[in-house]
Description:
Elements: E1 40-41, E2 47-48, H1 65-69, E3 87-91, H2 92-97, H3 104-111, H4 115-131, E4 139-141, E5 148-153, E6 158-166, E7 171-178, E8 183-195, E9 199-205, E10 208-212, E11 217-221, E12 225-229, E13 237-248, E14 254-259, E15 271-277, E16 283-290, E17 294-298, H5 300-318, H6 323-332, E18 350-354, H7 370-373, H8 395-401, H9 405-428, E19 438-442, E20 449-453
Amino acid sequence: GFDSDNSSGDFSEANHKVPEMLDLDPHQSNRTGKHNGQTEIQENGIKRHRTSLPAPMFSRSDFSVWSILKKCIGLELSKITMPIVFNEPLSFLQRITEYMEHIYLINKACSHADPLERMQAVAAFAVSAVASQWERTGKPFNPLLGETYELTREDLGFRFISEQVSHHPPISAFYSEGLNKDFIFHGSIYPKLKFWGKSIEAEPRGTITLELLKHNEAYTWTNPTCCVHNVIIGKLWLEQYGVVEIVNHSTGDKCVLNFKPCGLFGKELHRVEGYIQDKHRKKLCVIYGKWTECLWCTDPTTYETYKKSEKRGGEQKKKSVSEEDIKSENDEADDMPEVQDTVQFIPGSKLLWRINCRPPNSSQMYNFTSFAVSLNELEKGMEAILAPTDCRLRPDIRNMENGNMDVASKEKERLEEKQRAARKERAKDEVEWHTRWFHQGTNPYTGTPDWLYSGGYFDRNFSDCPDIY
């Protein structure tokens, strides 16, 4: 994200006029008929979460990211305030929680007796964790120092807690556990931002750890790099690229996933290819697919045979491509690449994961998934049990979600000013900031620095929580 309490007032979102709202299809309005928390109960007793936001998103067509960034060349991106119209009504802590959208893959991993099948499920979970970012070009709100977010989903079998443990550099720590005590999922994320002129690159530093308690196994990995293109002109689009290594610290098995950059003609856009090997480096299976669509696995011999056959066919196809075709593709390469095909299925492959369908009105709700739509829902009676630092209670996010953009902008400025004043007061009194639910330590599996859950959040003793809102 870009927002910061150190930013200049020259780039304040209050100085920008908010454009008109988009119209939602009335047939796709909130199915529950209730906003901000009055959740209906289904016949089977499971809560039915909302299917729509209280208000549609605002058009960004009258705004240019470049109009802001060109004034900030040479500055740290973490210290630039963007107009609130470029945000989405979620905190980054809530965005992290979207890792849990495909939690059924963790449940699959827990249920498998074969370590290879467990690794396949974990690999699919690691890929699914970034799938919600597809077409999500709005930036989440930067969490305030001390901000928290909790989510308990009895229907999905987990509870989740996160805290913003550092503001500069921005570090978010999270911890989740299965309600059946079958897994623990935790980590910390420190997004490193780079501005390349036409694109913004976000490298999500930090270790992700998944522990399968029944099997006494622990897996660690880091997320791929995310890049947002066309920040100067054109339609914003993003890609994920980089090598992700998932290590099973109990068996020595490793999964290597290559998130491929789109390439000159965009033919590799969204593609993921990799393999699982044992501790002796013997390839056990090959994984392929797209992080925006699905993931398959097959045995190495079948995969190599298919690739050789595909290459022979490709060479013949290349001869029929004219110079005009190549020039045309090259001219379009700087624009948003279009996805021309789906994943080519290799006979005998096993499906590991497929992306969930988004709500039909998703494009008018910041391209949220159904899971994301429910994250900022404030159910009746929830305020009484939430920590006072929970994201759902942030007035700027709440007002943006409700369509009150002017109020949201003013509230965001007020919160940032309050954070600045609190930091100055601590510096004056030489008082250090102390995190509430996490502490600095060492990852027990990688030996690298990490933020570890201190415990006690769900005892709900919030008497010493900071006043950040």
